[in-house]
């Protein structure tokens, strides 16, 4: 039979899509909210035709056909409008008449999402729910040989250092001689990783900044947040709240014109400057802000035209070697603030992290190293980068820490780990594991979006449309109709909730380990894992 | 948890006194080992204050090896106490060949050495001997330093002291530190017994150091050959003290600021705030996390006691001018100095360092909130 639609090589049926929309005709009141809320326009209002047989009573007349029409919603099968599974339709439906269901088999959409010869680009995270961090257990529990501490009552000091810490001999000598000592910040070990003003909506950014300020000024937790690449709003640059902010400079230098111009008017120094060389979600790539999100405000802050895609180069174009990248860039950034601000690089986890670390260790002013593992999230990247590139964070951070131990600089160059921290919801456990593997602190972005703003994404390709500015929750959208869904006050409150509960959980981990006066950085004797090879690789206990 | 006792007295006293103090604290240790540190020696060693004294346990073969090695280095014996343990050993005490305490004359060329170099070379000799002994199992060397004797053995403290006949004139001292061991391992390595000694610095601890691994890693990476061993989680306390006094040139008053720094709130308007903040940052790896009470002795023969921040381990200082004792329990103090004014007993809290200097006239209490010696922060 001839099909009544044209079948082309990229014609897909609903079954071929990763998400199928289950719609219940009997429950639906045809209010249309689902179609209105759908960020992908995956739903269309439809007219259905139904044949009804009407058998008369008796044998005098033969049965008749009648055709009825009724209204409903239909899932589009165009790859551009494929359902992303965000579930907004269900969220707004008054009757639970609709919801996305994940396909029971591998979808065929993946073969067709390269329209125009452009491979798939998306936001979100690497689509792999598993990870080593969740398998690590804390096996050294104080009980009798040393009494356990009371997580609820004891006095805990859970801060960490960001900045180049000189060896004690050198520090004391410089103090005596009144010499220059690199700046060091005492911060909370959970840093909000770089999510730019541009990647995030204005309401989300405002909410995070308010939450961070509240945590610092009301709760007394020295939480800091990285701006990501894309600059910083002018008012924040000139406010006293800048001290809670790590300014990030990436290879596109977006927003840095504004920052440099604001320098003379800054009331306080920023917490630190982070030079982004790489990101765990798209190692080897620069930043990417797609044109959908470059509106008037973003264009103004970044100093670019409106409506154009903003890819950062994969590397800082003025540097051609690691010596320059490490020495020159760190020095010039330090100099800009009179050597009062710690400057450190952020790289993607890679098998060459050790080389970077070695160079930093020899640089007397490098303030640390942030390493972002393969499980990091992003606002926009090529799918292949996100899913297939990168290095897991656990072994990378461990190698780097043990490298520092070998050269005796483990207190001097703090390491910050990111990429998949808390991706299955176990933020405190993952963070504690990384700290005990050797990180001075951890960075997280995805978890913050999920906890503070209800990001719907998952590690199984749900949603992941941060790149096109249609975030169903308004977290990563620059469209006022979407970002007004997000109340910044509530984001701030959720952020505070998140940090307070993280703090309690972290104490619940370190207290039974008998630690309270210093963060258990490198306390690898407390860790165990039920995989022999992983245990060997990480130099921790093998436990089954 | 181990029990500790240390005493400093104008009148030389016998190790038996310390063993008796440990005995009254018997419920706090399982008698699985004892460690003794004697300094400010009297008797024959009184006149040999500058001569390095080697103390250790040797097999007959080990002793010959030692003699050959020391002779090759140019050391000649000035005086020795050899304890040949009577047979049979009491239950729980191993049978050894020889406990040796031997004072040496320096090799000729050593006389030209600076004090610093001499200290380093003495430590190197001890480490070399220890290494030789560990290879063949015939030498256990505890210390090699002027005016210092160390004896460690497995077994109940009082039994060991009586069995070895340590209550002898040659071993009378004015400073004695002793530990009754509560063994938490299956096999006891004598190097894991307190007190721990390095270049005249000696500490012992009750409790467990939960920050052991990072501190050990940090100290080991300092490149100083003496920072080794670590058969016990508490050995790091002696090395931190050594590091802060020898390498950083800090006075004892700063030791507590290294191992348990003040928080920002506590620092408040401390006169040395800027210095202390830098010290806390730069020595962050050396922060101990307890629970521990540390008792120690410096090369100048002053004794001290500090607590970690949690103050979960007992410790008390008391006595009278001329004689003060540090004990992990009050009953230990009562057993040895019953006639002291008990109202002057002091139990250091989490900010205190209790110090009795070599003049033994008072217990000096140094609180972390007080200002540090001026010279330090100049």
In short:
Chain A is of the alpha/beta class.
- Low-pLDDT sequence parts of chain A: none
Classified in CATH, the superfamily of the largest domain in chain B is Aminohydrolase, N-terminal nucleophile (Ntn) domain
- Rg on CA atoms of chain A, Å: 26 Å
- Name the CATH architecture of the largest domain in chain B: 4-Layer Sandwich
Strand content of chain B: 25-35%
Give the strand tally of chain B: 16
Quote the distance from N terminus to C terminus of chain A. 61 Å
Give the low-pLDDT segments of chain B. Answer: none
The average pLDDT of chain A is 93
Strand order within the widest sheet of chain A?
A: 9-19-18-16-15-12-11-10
Structural class of chain A: alpha/beta
Gyration radius over CA of chain B: 20 Å
Largest sheet of chain A: 8 strands, parallel
Strand fraction of chain A: 15-25%
The SSE string of chain B, one letter per element, is EHEEHEEHEEHEEEHHHHHEEEEHEEH
Number of domains of chain B: 2
Intertermini distance of chain B: 41 Å
């Amino acid at each position: 039979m001839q099909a009544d639609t044209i079948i082309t090589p990229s014609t897909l049926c609903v079954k071929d899509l990763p998400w199928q929309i289950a719609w219940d005709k009997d429950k639906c009141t045809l209010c249309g909210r689902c179609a209105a809320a759908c960020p992908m326009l995956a739903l269309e209002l439809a007219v259905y035709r139904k044949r009804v047989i009407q058998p008369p009573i008796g044998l005098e007349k033969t049965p008749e056909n009648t055709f009825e029409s009724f209204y409903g919603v239909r899932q589009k099968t165009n790859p551009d409008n494929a359902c992303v599974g965000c579930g907004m339709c269900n969220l707004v439906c008054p009757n639970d008449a609709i919801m996305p269901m994940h396909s029971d088999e591998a979808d065929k959409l993946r073969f067709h999402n390269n329209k125009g010869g452009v491979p798939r680009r998306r936001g979100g995270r690497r689509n792999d729910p598993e990870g080593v961090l969740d398998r690590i257990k804390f096996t050294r529990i104080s009980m009798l040989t040393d009494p356990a501490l009371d997580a609820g009552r004891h006095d805990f000091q859970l801060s960490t250092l960001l900045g180049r810490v000189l060896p004690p001999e050198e520090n004391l000598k410089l103090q005596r001689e009144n010499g220059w000592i690199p700046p060091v910040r005492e911060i909370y070990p959970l840093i909000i990783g770089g999510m730019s003003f541009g990647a995030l909506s204005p309401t989300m950014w405002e909410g995070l900044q308010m939450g961070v300020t509240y945590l610092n000024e009301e709760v007394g937790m020295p939480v800091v947040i990285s701006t990501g690449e894309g600059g910083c709003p002018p008012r924040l640059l000139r406010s006293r709240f800048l001290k809670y902010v790590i300014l990030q400079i990436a290879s596109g230098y977006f927003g840095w014109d504004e920052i440099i111009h604001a320098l003379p008017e800054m009331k306080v120094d920023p917490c630190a400057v982070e030079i982004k060389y790489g990101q765990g979600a798209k190692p080897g790539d620069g930043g990417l802000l797609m044109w959908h999100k470059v509106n008037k405000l973003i264009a103004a802050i970044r100093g670019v035209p409106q409506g154009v895609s903003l890819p950062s180069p994969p590397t800082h174009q003025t540097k051609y070697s690691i010596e320059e990248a490490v020495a020159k860039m760190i020095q010039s950034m330090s100099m800009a603030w009179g050597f009062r601000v710690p400057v450190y690089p952020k790289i993607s986890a890679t098998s060459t992290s050790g080389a970077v670390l070695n160079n930093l260790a020899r640089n007397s002013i490098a303030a640390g190293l942030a390493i972002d593992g393969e499980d990091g999230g992003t606002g926009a990247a090529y799918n292949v980068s996100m899913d297939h590139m990168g290095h897991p964070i656990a072994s990378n951070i461990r190698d780097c820490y043990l490298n520092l131990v070998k050269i005796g600089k483990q207190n001097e160059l703090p390491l910050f780990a990111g990429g998949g921290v808390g991706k299955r919801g176990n933020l405190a456990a993952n963070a504690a594991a990384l700290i005990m593997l050797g990180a001075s602190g951890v960075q997280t972005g995805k978890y913050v979006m999920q906890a503070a703003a209800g990001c719907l994404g998952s590690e199984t390709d749900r949603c992941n449309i941060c790149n096109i500015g249609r975030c169903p929750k308004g977290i990563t959208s620059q469209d006022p109709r979407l970002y007004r869904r997000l109340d910044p006050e509530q984001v701030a409150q959720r952020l505070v909730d998140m940090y307070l509960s993280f703090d309690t959980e972290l104490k619940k981990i370190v207290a039974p380990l008998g630690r309270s006066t210093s963060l258990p950085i490198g306390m690898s004797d407390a860790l165990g894992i039920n995989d022999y090879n992983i245990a060997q690789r990480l130099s921790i206990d093998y436990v089954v | 948890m181990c029990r500790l006792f240390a005493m400093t007295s104008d009148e030389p006293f016998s190790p038996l006194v310390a063993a008796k103090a440990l005995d009254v604290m018997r419920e706090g240790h399982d008698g699985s080992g004892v460690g003794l540190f004697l300094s400010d020696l009297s008797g024959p060693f009184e006149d040999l204050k500058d001569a390095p004294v080697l103390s250790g346990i040797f097999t007959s073969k080990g002793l010959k090896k030692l003699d050959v090695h020391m002779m090759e280095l140019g050391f000649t014996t000035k005086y020795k106490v050899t304890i040949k343990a009577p047979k049979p050993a009491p239950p729980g005490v191993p049978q050894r060949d020889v406990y040796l305490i031997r004072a040496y004359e320096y090799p000729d060329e050593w006389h030209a050495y600076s004090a610093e170099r001499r200290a380093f070379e003495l430590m190197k000799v001890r480490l070399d001997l220890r290494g030789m002994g560990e290879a063949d199992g015939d030498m256990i060397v505890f210390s090699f330093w002027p005016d210092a004797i160390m004896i460690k053995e497995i077994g109940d403290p009082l039994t060991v002291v009586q069995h070895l006949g340590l209550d002898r004139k040659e071993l009378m001292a004015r400073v004695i530190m002793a530990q009754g061991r509560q063994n938490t391992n299956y096999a006891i390595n004598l190097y894991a017994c307190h007190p721990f000694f390095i270049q005249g610095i000696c500490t012992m601890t009750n409790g467990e150091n939960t920050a052991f691994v990072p501190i050990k890693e940090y100290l080991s990476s300092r490149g100083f050959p003496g920072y080794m061993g670590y058969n016990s989680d508490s050995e790091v306390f002696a090395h931190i003290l050594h590091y802060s006094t020898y390498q950083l040139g800090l006075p004892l008053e700063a030791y507590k600021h290294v191992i348990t720094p003040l928080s920002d709130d506590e620092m408040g308007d401390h006169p040395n705030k800027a210095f202390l903040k830098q010290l806390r940052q730069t020595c962050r790896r050396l922060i101990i996390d307890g629970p521990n009470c540390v008792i120690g002795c410096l090369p100048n023969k002053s004794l001290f006691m500090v607590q970690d921040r949690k103050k979960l381990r007992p410790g008390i200082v008391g006595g009278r001018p001329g004689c003060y004792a540090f004990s992990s329990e009050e009953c230990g103090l009562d057993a040895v100095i019953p006639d002291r004014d008990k109202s002057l007993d002091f139990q250091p809290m989490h900010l205190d360092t209790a110090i009795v200097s070599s003049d033994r006239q008072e217990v000096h209490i140094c609180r972390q909130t007080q200002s540090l010696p001026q010279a330090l922060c100049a």
